[in-house]
Amino acid sequence: MAVSLPTNPAYADSIRDKQAWYLRSINALQAGSITTGAGVTVAVIDTGTYPHPDLRNNLLKGDDEASASAGDGQTDHEGHGTRMAALIAGHGRGGSGIRGLAPSAKILPIRVAEKAETRNSEVVARGVDFAIEHGATVINISMGGGPDFDLDDAVGRAIDHNIVVVASVGNAPRDFLINYPAANDGVVAVAATGRDGKHASVSVKDAKVQLCAPGVDIISASPKDGYSLGTGTSDSTAIVSGAAALVRAKFPDLSAKDVINRLTSTADDIGAPGRDTECGFGRLNVFKALTADVPPLQGAATSATPGATTSTVVAPAATPSSAPAAAEPKSASSSMPLVLGGLAGLVVAGGLVAVLVIRRRRSF
Questions:
Q1: What DSSP string describes 128-162?
Q2: Which of 142, 220, 234, 334 is catalytic?
Q3: Are the C-beta atoms of 52 and 87 separated by less than 8 Å?
Q4: 258 is annotated as an active-site residue
Q5: How many whole angstroms separate alpha carbon 263 and alpha carbon 188?
Q6: Which single residue of 63, 103, 186, 198 could bond 91 by disulfide (Cβ 3.0 to 4.6 Å)?
Q7: Going along 149-238, which residue ranges are E strands?
Q8: pLDDT at residue number 70
């Protein structure tokens, strides 16, 4: 569901105020004085990314796997992918417009569907391979569905190439099981918190959840130079991807597993003590992730180069706050954005996950 909002420049001036609550919730307001994500490329596998004025300077030429003809990924009719990209690496316009968590990071847009809910897992798998081949060090997948051999293999290849893969767990009540690829080992499975800082009812619960981040009433950029408000684990996933980009920029020699460990071990435990099914290790704390003294995981190669193949098997630290080697992401976060300039439905796919052995051509 989408509701129009103003698109005039005066409204853009108020965007930062609308971002403040969730940035404060994850202790991210001071992050810009530490790093802005320069040198990191984040692949956004989604509906494409529109070259919005708040984002276009960070937008690379990507890929269009959803069309028969070649494309650069910079087409987005639905707006979902644009929202995610801006939350990660929006640079805004001076003091106005959307500023993502990593405003100096680059976005590699990979269009895999016309609409998020119609994505095919085999197409998403091709998008993951494109991200691997083109130097992404973080992959954001704000969607999901059932298990699929091709996608599982592609995600595994990304992890073997030392890439941080982040995916959304899915949205209740449409989803009642965690989606794939969030459920895959090694993926950061992200759930959502609300304005109260607690687990949001829209977010699926599962033992594989790794982190929570804000996912209710999240403002972001939309096609046609507009803005939108969204609710769902799509948004929280993009926020975590932005944080991952900051950690990669601040600690360029860390392996992907150690990046994940830094994010999870510094999270704020907001539920029952220890890991739980709502927020996993807790709510993202960006400042702590960038500044805390976090020992490397046993056996993790801290000098691993992102994009280089690594088969290191990591033994997680004994403390419950250590990032597990198996961070399973869940996609299919249904966003309900207020798209500036028009009323348009934006519901990310990821319907009911049937636990089946057959995983061919499962739609997202």
A1: HHHHHHTT-SEEEE---BS--HHHHHHHHHHHHTT
A2: 234
A3: no
A4: no
A5: 10
A6: 103
A7: 164-168, 188-193, 211-214, 218-222, 226-230
A8: 85
Give the full edge-to-edge strand order of the sheet including 106-111: 63-64, 106-111, 41-46, 138-141, 164-168, 188-193, 211-214
The rounded distance, in Å, linking the Cα atoms of 130 and 110 is 8
Per-residue DSSP letter, 126: H
Catalytic hit among 52, 54, 76, 80 = 80
Give me 215's structure tokens. Answer: 């996912």
Angstrom distance (rounded) from CA 84 to CA 215: 12
pLDDT of residue 348: 44
Contact between 182 and 333 under an 8 Å Cβ cutoff? The reply is: no
State both tokens at 36: 């802005």
Q: At what angle do helices 80-89 and 233-250 cross, to 10 degrees?
A: 30
Report the pLDDT value the prediction gives residue 308, as an integer from 0 to 100.
47
Place of tokens 């049937």: 354
- What's the token pair of residue 207? 């033992």
Could you list the mean pLDDT of each consecutive 10-residue stretch along the chain, which spans 364 residues? 46 84 96 97 98 98 92 96 99 94 99 86 97 99 95 98 98 92 98 97 97 98 95 98 99 98 98 94 99 87 46 36 35 40 35 31 37
Place of tokens 């809910």: 117
Tell me the C-alpha distance between 143 and 125, whole Å: 13
Other residues' Cβ atoms within 10 Å of the Cβ of residue 157: 15
Tell me if 324 sits within 8 A of 276, measured CB to CB: no
* This prediction's pTM: 0.84
DSSP, collapsed to helix, strand or coil, labels residue 329 as coil
Catalytic-role residue among 46, 54, 63, 150: 46
In the residue annotation, 46 being an active-site residue is answered as: yes
Q: What is the DSSP string of 244-296?
A: HHHHHHH-TT--HHHHHHHHHHTSB--SSSS-BTTTBT-B--HHHHHHS--PP
The b-or-e profile of 28-64 (16+ CB within 10 A means b, else e) is beebbeebbbeebbbbbbbbbbbbbbbbeebbbebbb
Pairing of strands 226-230, 218-222: antiparallel
Q: Determine if residue 139 is left, alpha or beta; phi over 0 gives left, psi from -120 to 50 gives alpha, anything else beta.
A: beta
234 is catalytic: yes
